[in-house]
Each structure stands twice: as structure tokens, then as C-alpha cells.
Amino acid sequence: MLELDGLTRRFGETLAVDDVGFEVPRGAMTGFVGGNGAGKTTTMRMIMGVLQPSAGTVTWKGREVTVADRRTFGYMPEERGLYPKQPILDQLVYLGRLQGRSPEGARRSATELLDRFGLGDRTADKLESLSLGNQQRVQVVAAVIGGPELLVLDEPFSGLDPVAVDSMVDLLREYTSQGVPVLFSSHQLDLVERLCDHLVVLAGGRVVANGTVDDLRRRGRVLHRLVAGTDAGWVRSLPGVHVVDVDGPTALLDLDRPEVTDLVLREAMARGSVRELAEVVPTLSEIYREVTS
Ligand SMILES: Nc1ncnc2c1ncn2[C@@H]1O[C@H](COP(=O)(O)OP(=O)(O)OP(=O)(O)O)[C@@H](O)[C@H]1O
């Protein structure tokens, strides 16, 4: 498990990362979200040792992370790390060797991974000759080529088409199923909602939410949708009911207490039929807006 504690980074007057603490558990996918400039990249750079923290610690497997530990981490930096003018396979083999793989092992893994991403016939091409999405796929291969114990990926899904997203998701799930903790940043909340076991939301350099997606949903405001047989305007007069919206027979309600659901149901039945009375659980986008506003 990776743990950050009190991690802080200043750039002159700018407090880019402010007392950030969270865990990236084993075998789980942790989504790292936040608006532009929230501090995600700076945090990831401190995890990887590319930037020194102004304060705080990064702990790996219960002790302060070392240079040797970081060699076992797979990293996909925001600025991407590969050389545009070098052949793809050569670079990947080189990186694999830097991370302790044998030349044959690195070549075999790189070829298999490139095949998987549909790039098996491009191995001798220069990186710059690939489309941006395909370059991105190669960058991910570079992050995993050493057989990482932890993956830190800065916006790995940006610019990928849906097929490439699915290949990447499958690949990352293979790592989490082997126990590898994965931390990735993204602005694509639908994807984060689909993928993540665990979520950390950053705003203005601080952690404003941290937990499983289900936890955060439960903490959000759960509304109820009533679809009555006829106009539902009468709900306005019920005690304990705050009407968010009424449109003909459909009403969106904020109830004071769970028991108020029974009252709404009884009243609706007494006035005719009830087509639906259901909880409306907030989406991740709604929770995100709430915690970052
Ligand atoms: N090298 C640097 N020198 C000065 N300020 C920096 C530096 N790197 C980052 N910052 C500032 O730190 C803050 C956090 O930036 P960071 O890149 O970590 O955010 P981010 O959440 O990754 O944003 P984005 O989603 O736009 O990539 C910003 O105000 C940024 O301008």
C-alpha cells in the first residue's frame, strides 16, 4: 500500500499541494480527480520523487519510500516520457532493462503488449509517426514494461478512443487483480465512476473527498422520484417533503427522513395509482460538483 501523509508543495507563493493525505490500497484502482490546477500532477510527481515535497511523507509498504522502491513503480508522466524520434520497440526494451528486465524478457513483454494494443506491426516505427492515441498506448506500455509493483498514471485515458479505453481498462484490471495498487488521474468522471474502487477528490491543493465511490454517493444528497398517476402538485403540502421539481405526474423530492417515503406512498395511493417511487442516487459528477464548489 502507498500512503501519503501531510504532503505539501509550494512554488514560491503558490501552495500547489496542501497537507494531502490518502492511501492507495493494494489491488484497487484509485481515481484521482480535481479541476485544472488542483494539484494532481504535483502530487504524483512527489510520489515518484521527480519533485521534492516542501513537507510530508510518502510511505510504501509501511516505510518511507526509497529510490530503489521507486524503480519498481510504473509511471506515466503528464509530459509523457518517450523520445518521439526513436523506434518504439527499442525504447521499450531499453526502459524494461533499466527496470531490471533481461533483454529477451523486455523484448517479449514489449512485443506482447504492443500486439495487444494493435501496434504489433509498428514496433520499428518512430513514436512520432503514430497518431496521438497510439502514442498514448505506447506510453502506457512504457509504464508497465518493468512489471511494476505500483502504477501511477497521469491522465492515461485522455485522447483515447473507446476501444483503446477498453484495452487500457482490461490491462489495468490485470494489474489490480495481481494486487498492484493503481493511482490514475482523470477528468473523465464517467470513466472514473465505472472503473474505480476508490476515489480521491482534490480542490485547491487539498483533499475534499476520499472514499469508495459508494461511500461518497451515500454521503451525497439522495433524492426520491415519484411518478404518480395524475398531477403530483399535492406533494408540496406534505410535511417533511421539500419539492425540488414537479412536472405533471413526476416529482423530484428531498425527504427529511427515510420514514417520509411511507407518507408519500400512502398519500399517492390514496389519490390514485403510483407508477414509481424510487431513490435517485447522485452521480459522481453531481457529488464532484458538490464537494468542489
Ligand atoms: N513547476 C511549477 N512551478 C510553479 N508552479 C507550478 C509548477 N507546477 C505546478 N505549479 C502550480 O501548482 C498548481 C497545481 O498544478 P498541477 O499541475 O499539480 O495541477 P493538476 O491538478 O495536475 O492540473 P491539470 O488537471 O490542469 O493537469 C497550479 O497552480 C500550477 O500552476
TrEMBL record:
User: What keywords sit in the KW lines?
Assistant: ATP-binding, Nucleotide-binding, Transport
For the keyword Transport, the answer is yes
Q: Which GO terms describe its molecular function?
A: ATP binding; ATP hydrolysis activity
Q: What InterPro entries does the record point to?
A: AAA+_ATPase, ABC_transporter-like_ATP-bd, ABC_transporter-like_CS, DrrA1/2-like_C, P-loop_NTPase
In this chain the ABC transporter domain maps to: 2-229
Q: Which domain of life does this protein belong to?
A: Bacteria
Q: Which family does it belong to?
A: Belongs to the ABC transporter superfamily.
Designated name of the protein = ABC transporter ATP-binding protein
| Source species | Dietzia natronolimnaea
